[in-house]
Design a protein that fits this description.
Rossmann fold; 5 strands; 185 residues; alpha/beta
Length: 185
Amino acid sequence: MRVLTISGSLRPDSLNTLLLRAAEEQAPAGVQLVRFTELAAIPPFHGERSDPGERPAPVRELSEQIEAADALLIATPEYNGSIPGVLKNALDWVSTPFPDNVLRGKPVAVIGASSGLFGAVWAQAELRKVLSAIGARVVDRELPVGLAAEAFTAEGRLADHDLELVLGDVLAELQREVETVPAVA
């Protein structure tokens, strides 16, 4: 199973990217996690949903990677009580044409890390809402890592064994979703 991972943060030392690296370490046998790293290259979406016209190369690349993946794992930070604009922008692009888009019926799991106690919870709720509106199959598991600056070891692993277990559960749930429910045509 091939899982495309996307960090909603552009920061080089992003805690959400670190969380995706922790997921890579925990991937079950037969699950390959591949990171999309060109989020910053995606230009602003112009708003035409039924016929977006010629797609810029970074948008085509993201769409192709989503189409080639069996599922997605997105780690989102919280910006002002919601998700980062750059992540929302990318999702707006790949949601076209609506309703027949590359995310329609695609299994997606949402995780996130935040520096505060509740930011990851808020951002994940917002992202789950956006993905559901697009037509993705959002799995019913999430992992909010609050106070994330203290949540990782110096080696980049999750310091709390319980968080590692939940991350493993999220990956297992995503794998079950891919194996048990056929994609929407």
